[in-house]
Specification:
This protein has 571 residues and is mainly alpha-helical. The chain folds into two domains: 430 residues, Sodium/glucose cotransporter (Up-down Bundle), CATH 1.20.1730; 96 residues, no CATH class. The chain contains 28 helices and no strands. Helix 8 runs parallel beside helix 24, helix 12 crosses helix 23 and helix 19 packs across helix 20.
Amino acid sequence: MNTGISTIDISIIIIYFIVVLGIGFSIARRTKTGDDLFLGGRTFGWGLIGLSLFASNISSSTIIGLSGAAYTTGIVNSVYEWLSGLPLIIAALIFVPLYLRSRITTIPEFLEKRFDRRSQVFFSIITIVMSIIVDTAGGLYAGAIVMQTFFPDLVLWHVTLVLALVAGIYTAFGGLRAVVYTDAIQAIILIFGCSVLTYMMYERLGFSWANVMANVPEGHFSVVRPLSDETLPWPGLLLGVPFLGFWYWSTNQYIVQRVLGGRNVRHARWGVMLAGFLKIIPLFIIVIPGAMAISIIPGLGENGDAVFPRAVMEVLPVGMVGLVLAGLISAIMSSVDSTLNSASTLVVVDFIKPMQEKRTGKALDSNLIEKSAPKKEVQREKDTSFIGIIAGIITNPIRMIIRLLWSGDEAARYGRITTLILMTIAAIWAPMIVHFGGLWGYLQQMFSIVVPPIVVIFLVGVFYKRGNADGAFFTLLIGTILGIVLFVLAQLKISGLHYTYNVGIMVGVSTILFIAFSLMTAPPSAEKIADYTFSKDLISDGMEGLPWYKDYRFHAVLLMALMGYILYLFW
């Protein structure tokens, strides 16, 4: 049994940090335009897209929280993972081709094209605030808390600062391409490390499922819970989980951005399908091991958050602890870098770019840097290998950072500066979360406030062609206000509804608002919305001439069958 963090483990973690920074700065040399920074030049293949979607979605709090919940209340929370395939299939069928045809950089841009500027601004502001205050800062805080369980002497704000600096620097300079490449590596490390931990825990139980089930309470391995269940009653599976999943996978900027960077609709769809299959993996390498721990590490009671750290320290040998910790840090970094990149993209594309165009009368410069650079500079670029970059970081960091910061076009420079500013805000805010206690848990439920009206204007908006700009804007405005009212009533104990019920109710209310306001005002021009609403040709777009086994629709059927089988197994 391993009883501490060895020098070997620490060395593995340090090497991981160096490699990630090296990749970020190496890619930064090729990041010259806003399109490079925000969408990786729209060159991503399906493998990178799928791995990055998976890695960005899995955070340290996901790993700790899912394994802990499986220990204390059962595996029901795993539905948020493996049922992700359903909204991902919807995204692949409809929204991937719609977004790529639109040539948008941000999801709020789609709302401007489908409706008007008001909806774009409203949605963008909500997304930016939630990304930095909840996602980025929350990811840093959760990551720091997790690291303190392994290294008790660490100071909270020191850890959040280091994590923010590493993720923020390579994201600012390398942009989405750096995020996606590091995400791909992080996903592989995470899957491998957690798989080894699962194997060794199962070995402890004699590779016997009967031994796994021996000490777990009745219903612990059921995902369909009674109405009285506080974690996720069965109506929540129908009323809340699908809509939350749709919002997350089809309208969330920090997730969809890597899809927008796909080289074409085929690769974007294949990547989305790959993510759907990968999302089944956490059930077996994170959730079920949490339930296994009941027999291996008994007596933790309600302290579920201690399950994963205890399992790592007690089950894994020296060396493997460092690898799993690197995977855990990977989960932290992949969430933080994604939210930083998406938030900076929203600020530049949705706000700075329009203001610049209004002020100067011309578009934000997004041309490549001058074609003929001085010979000395060209030679320096050629000599800057991966090893040279690492040496540069160590020997002359300030000069390199300033040089990279101001390279490229206006959009790239604005994007880098914005990323660093947002990184600073998140790093400052993250340690403050400790003073909010239980309030931070309530803030996580704030997503149930903003999600319903967003789901409606996207999901209903692409099918209901009578829906117009007034309908979308007032649905967002009134739906959000009503969501806040429901949230406050829940906190005052006036309403005892589960938050997933609130999501379903507010989706219904928002749908009525959207249709009512649209009918009360003039319909949109059919020509204006033709490219931003559903048509049958969307489903087959890009699949012409492909054999059946390469058709994403075949992959979707397989994924549906697999999800159905899992539901049958753990009903």
